[in-house]
Design goal:
Shape: elongated
Number of helices: 22
Structural class: alpha+beta
Distance between the termini: 44 Å
Number of strands: 10
Radius of gyration: 38 Å
Strand content: 5-15%
Largest sheet: 5 strands, mixed
Length: 746
């Protein structure tokens, strides 16, 4: 419907313009003037119609050009000059000029010009009739028609712009989601990976002097690596609902393993999920900061809740030469400052009066923030918000104007207080039902409801006709528009026609001339179409805004999948390698201390690379080097006692192809390490003409790992390879070995 609505609105505009032309032409033609006068009227009308229908109604923003200004000048001439010749019947023509002026001229100038046009028309009406009622009726009708002619055209352009820009919100949402990923990666994995480096250094230093201490450190590294792998899965699946008690035990264990004397005090009530997650992030970042600095012997962690305020203090005695946190500091603490501020809290980091390093968090307990979703982007939401306000405001003004114009017209027929009161109440009820229910965006009609609405409006339209047949003045056009809005297509148009046809029948018994009946029929039809068109446009804006959010949610979901895939592909091998090398080092401590020391150095280096990968995953795809990944895979497989044979023959490859092949190599080696019990692995990369082939063959596939779809990693790789036009296969060979093969265009 959103794209159909602008086209339908243009159709309604054509009908309205033709109706106004009919209202002007019929009185002139039936007034007994000469044929030449009628011909001149036809020529003037054709010029107005040509400009309005074939230029202004299609040009949109391009009408604001020298050609548009010239066309506006021509329309002004044929709108005002014939007034002196044709008089009162020609007064509707400046209505079209006013609507066009709003479309063509700059906003301030346009409204000044429209005010001037209204003043001229009203003055002309006063000179012709000298009636204040005529002036009031013309003014209200003039403003209403001008607004809905301008509004239908303007809303059509806004809906088209909104449809074209519907993906913008998705882009912004994805950017925010990437920021959240980066923050959660640093908050959750930063502590784990930051702890591995110092522990590896301690284990290597104590390898010969204190083997038992070195063994404990290796055990802690192994536990941290496994914990980090679990965190990777949790981050990829969404926000983690963190337990303060579990995390406090974890950080207490980490600090104790680093020979830090810990005093932990937790005293709080039930906290919202988003607040628990934030406090755990601050706790982890604060403890990571403690572990990053040497010379810390004691650390106090105190969490208290007093009323609706929670405080967290992390204080240590390793403050030598340290500086307070600055906005440019590369610290996990900086990553949580924005989240704390968004929830109305404060995070202070720096030395306390005793010279100790302290982290002090103060945050109010509030459930209003829910999961602390990001505020909408004001620039991206500017057009849809303006379109929504414009559509709603336009409906309010136009429908209220219709009701007021009907009441003013009633004064032409009667001054009876009872008639005026009853008719006024019916008109007010009709307009209120239209605005607050029928035309309200998002309203859904069930079968009983739709008929009740039509019955209620029909009563308010036709009851005055039964009570005061000489002064029937309710607006049947609103009922006609409601039929189009709430009924199914065939029934809707039958109802619309029935309401329009009821107008001449209702007036048949009163001595009303044919011209007045034609006028009333045309006004009813026009009002019904305008009611339908404005409501349709408002609903289209509402649906497009909802669709934009749906598209944004879909884009975020796709980004989550990409993020989960990259976490698996890039960090899986690093963390698995740390686990394997730690287990290998534990076995080599007595048998080969020198090699154990070498492995420990590699563990520290891999942990640093993993931290780099954390940043790369959050910021986008990584430009991987196939040569570097080949060397890394060979080293990791050798550390796992797998005999590796590498055969690499390829030329210069595009970045996308190189990155995909390096990722396939990483994931393939990860699967060998995780799911295989083999002793040999062959890795070959060959380039044939315009194709590059990567094969990974190993001889120890476990049960359940024998298909190309086994494991989310293989499924992810199939998607990655397909994006560059390649194909991935995985399965058992006849000799029982497992073969992973990627064929990609070079």
């Amino acid at each position: 419907m959103p794209l159909i609505a602008p086209r339908f609105a243009r159709g309604i505009t054509v009908v309205v313009i033709c109706s106004l032309g009919m209202f002007a032409f019929l009185p002139i033609a039936s007034s007994g003037v000469g044929a030449s006068t009628v011909v001149r009227a036809v020529v003037y009308l054709l010029v107005i119609f040509a400009l309005q229908l074939f230029y202004f109604n299609r040009a949109g923003d391009s009408a604001r050009s020298p050609v548009g200004y010239a066309a506006l000048a021509v329309q002004a001439y044929v709108s005002f000059v014939p007034l002196s010749e044709f008089g009162d019947p020609w007064l509707p023509m400046p209505l079209l000029l006013a609507a066009t002026t709003l479309l063509v001229l700059p906003r301030v100038i346009a409204w000044v010009a429209v005010t001037a046009i209204i003043a001229i028309v009203v003055s002309k009406q006063w000179l012709l009739t000298g009636s204040w009622l005529d002036v009031a009726y013309l003014s209200v009708g003039f403003v209403g028609v001008t607004l809905y002619l301008y509004g239908l055209t303007r809303l059509g352009g806004l809906i088209a712009d909104l449809h074209q820009a519907r993906a913008e919100l998705g882009k912004v949402a994805v950017a925010r989601e990437r920021t959240r990923f980066a923050r959660d990666l640093h908050d959750l994995l930063g502590l784990s990976l930051a702890a591995i480096g110092p522990k590896g250094a301690i284990a290597r230093r104590e390898l010969r002097t204190d083997p038992e201490r070195s063994r404990r450190e290796l055990g802690e590294i192994l536990a941290v690596a496994r914990h980090a792998l679990a965190d990777v899965r949790l981050i990829a699946s969404g926000y983690r609902e963190m337990s303060l008690h579990e995390e406090s035990r974890t950080v207490e264990s980490l600090l104790a393993a680093s020979n830090v004397d810990v005093r932990m005090e937790l005293n709080h009530g039930e906290l919202p999920v988003h607040l628990r997650s934030l406090i755990v992030s601050v706790l982890r970042a604060g403890v990571a900061n403690v572990l990053d600095h040497t010379g810390v012997a004691r650390c106090e962690i105190v969490l208290r809740q007093v009323g609706r305020t929670v405080t967290l203090d992390i204080i240590d005695d390793g403050m030598t030469g340290m500086c307070p946190l600055t906005p440019d500091a590369d610290s996990g603490l900086e990553n949580v400052v924005e989240r704390v501020t968004a929830l109305g809290g404060e995070l202070v980091v720096g030395p306390d009066p005793d010279g100790r390093f302290g982290l002090h968090l103060t945050i109010p307990v509030s459930r209003e923030h829910g999961d602390a979703k990001a505020e909408p982007d004001h620039q991206v939401e500017q057009i849809p918000r303006f379109a929504s306000l414009f559509a709603t405001g336009l409906m309010n003004v136009v429908f209220a104007g219709m009701a007021l114009a009907a009441l003013l017209h009633l004064l032409y027929l009667t001054r009876d207080a009872v008639v005026l009161t009853v008719s006024g109440l019916c008109m007010a009820g009709l307009a209120a039902l239209q605005l607050l229910y029928v035309s309200k965006p998002g309203t859904r009609f069930t079968s009983p409801t739709r008929y009740l609405v039509i019955a209620a409006q029909a009563a308010m339209v036709y009851v005055p006709a039964l009570l005061f047949p000489h002064a029937w003045i309710s607006v049947p056009g609103m009922l006609a528009g409601t039929c189009l809005l709430v009924l199914r297509p065939v029934a809707a148009w039958i109802g619309f026609v029935a309401v329009v046809v009821s107008v001449p029948f209702a007036q048949a018994d009163f001595h009303v001339d044919a011209l007045s009946i034609a006028y009333n029929v045309g006004a009813t039809m026009t009002t019904g179409l305008v009611t339908y068109g404005l409501t349709l446009m408002a609903r289209s804006v509402w649906e497009l805004r909802a669709a934009r959010r749906t598209l944004a949610e879909a884009a975020v979901a796709e980004e989550r999948m990409r993020f989960a895939r990259d976490l698996h592909d890039l960090l899986g091998l690093s963390l698995s390698a740390i686990t394997l090398k730690t287990e290998l080092t534990q076995r080599l401590m007595k048998a080969d201390p020198d090699r154990a020391a070498t492995e420990l150095m590699e563990i520290v280096e891999i942990s640093r690379l993993a931290l780099t990968d954390v940043r790369l995953v959050a910021s986008g795809y990584r430009d991987l080097s196939l040569n570097e990944e080949s060397r890394s895979a060979e080293s990791v497989l050798a550390a796992a006692d797998v005999d590796v044979r590498m055969d690499l023959h390829y030329g210069e490859l595009p970045v996308e192809v190189r990155t995909v092949l390096a990722t396939v190599l990483r994931e393939g080696v990860t699967n060998v390490l995780r799911h295989s019990r083999g002793a040999r692995c062959e890795i070959t990369v060959r380039q044939h003409d315009n194709m590059v082939e990567l094969e990974i063959v190993n001889d120890g596939v476990g049960v359940g790992d024998s298909g190309p779809g086994s494991g989310s990693g293989i499924r992810n790789l199939s998607d990655r390879v397909a994006t560059v036009g390649g194909r991935l296969t995985a399965g058992l060979d006849s000799d029982g070995s497992f073969r992973l093969r990627a064929l990609v265009p070079a």
